[in-house]
Design goal:
Elements: E1 2-7, E2 12-13, E3 19-20, H1 27-38, E4 42-47, E5 59-62, H2 66-76, E6 82-85, E7 92-94, E8 113-115, H3 119-125, E9 131-137, H4 143-153, E10 158-162, E11 171-178, E12 183-190, H5 191-205
Parallel strand pairs: 1-4, 1-6, 4-5, 6-9, 9-10
Antiparallel strand pairs: 2-3, 7-8, 10-11, 11-12
Amino acid sequence: MRILITAGPTREYLDDVRYLSNASSGRMGYALAEAALAAGHEVVLISGPVALHPPAGALVRLVETTDQLLAACDAAWPDCDGVIATAAVCDYRPRERFPGKLAKTGVSLELELVETADVLAELGRKKGHRWIVGFALESEEFAHINAIRKLKEKNCNAIVLNRPTAIGSADNSVEVIERSGETVARFSGPKTVVAAELLQWISQAFASHEA
């Protein structure tokens, strides 16, 4: 299979220096890319800014903003069999990006934030015969319900539910939820191990989707 994998955070700039983002390390997505390559798959890795070296053999596209991520995904998606969307997309951006660097003025600065593009929903809208595995980072309350809602709204085949403790950590604990709402697998441990187990599950679940 040819697998599209998104990884890392996106950034949304206030000015030429400051930006909104999150603490995603990209480790889960990069581990999945390595696992997919080791299993003999082709990998297109679209990555936000991270302190990681891309795995040898992957076709890598580096992006910063959510719009750049969407454009890179749109370009790669037609030639892929499926996507594993681990990227931690920044949900909001400043309505206005200021040129240069904003200086202090001694008064408060009010920011208006607007929603960014929904990359996963766009991939789901153009899915066709391909498969989509999304990631949902949810807190404990209503985590399962929120993950199922995201799965259906984004037109995913399955969603991987993980918790905020995964951010920046070398370990992860996830559950895989199918469209029925049933949890069909659970994996815990170092992200490299979780990635290998998750990739094996994906390979078995979606082998029939190969182009």
